[in-house]
Specification:
Layout: H1 10-14, H2 19-45, E1 51-60, E2 67-76, E3 79-86, E4 92-95, E5 98-102, E6 105-113, E7 116-125, E8 128-137, E9 144-152, H3 175-187, H4 194-218
Length: about 240
């Protein structure tokens, strides 16, 4: 059988791509890449720093009694600061010694009482903080571990204040908080390798400078607002 190409299809198939066609493809590809970049940058810019007060229970794997816990956390350029309070049977209270938020995955560490260090790690966002915990004791070999699921603490409203005025604004970043966050960041840097330690210290420095800039901006007084009322003309 003698197979011959269809003359009606040959020009369309064998015709080389024209410069105009190539430019159209490049333009469409450029628009697609710019759109994807805009989506990624928009989502990154819209991620607000974490600031919340969580409460719930630490549930041990050993089926012991759950441990009530309250976590007050605030993010300063990737470094988490705040306070952790636990109830019986592991009562204690301490500021967060070290904390980081890596794209919604938080790690907190605090010496809740004498000889016991609590470590929380898991998914964190304003409406939920859940994951695994571990309590390491320096006085005995046994450690406690389990899971936790913390929800935002409900704001108690006093009688007569329902639907009242606006909530007080959140406290502004202070230079002291910036210094404390920078100290925790430097303490958490790995030791022994010069290059790794230098990169970590440089990252801490950049965060500290950004935090100081934010704190300085919050101290500026608001611009005065003039009352633009025309003066009454005497007749």
């Amino acid at each position: 059988m003698n197979l011959r190409p269809d003359p009606t299809l040959t020009p369309a198939v064998l015709a080389p791509t024209t410069p105009a066609h190539a430019m159209t493809l490049l333009s469409a590809l450029r628009i697609l890449l710019l759109g994807l970049a805009g989506i990624l940058l928009g989502s990154a810019a819209g991620a607000a720093p974490l600031e919340a007060v969580y409460e719930g229970y630490l549930v041990p794997e050993s089926f012991d009694a759950p441990i009530p816990i309250t976590v007050e956390v605030r993010e300063l350029h990737g470094v988490l600061v705040g306070h952790i309070k636990t109830g019986p049977p592991q009562a204690g209270s301490a500021p967060i010694a070290s904390g980081e938020n890596e794209s919604g995955h938080c790690t907190l560490r605090a010496p809740i009482n004498a000889g016991n260090v609590l470590r929380l790690t898991g998914t964190c966002h304003p409406r939920l903080f859940e994951g695994n915990y571990a309590i390491t004791s320096t006085r005995k070999d046994t450690n406690s571990a389990g899971t936790f699921r913390l929800m935002p603490k409900a704001n108690k409203v006093k009688p007569g204040e329902e639907g009242g005025g606006r909530r007080p604004s959140t406290p502004l970043t202070t230079l002291t908080e910036c210094i404390n966050a920078n100290t925790r960041c430097l303490i958490g840097c790995p030791k022994g390798d010069y290059n790794t330690e230098f990169l970590c210290a440089n990252r801490c420095r950049q965060r500290h400078l950004a935090c100081k800039g934010k704190a300085s901006a919050s101290l500026l007084p608001p611009a005065p607002v003039r009352n633009a009322q025309p003066e009454a003309e005497e007749r």
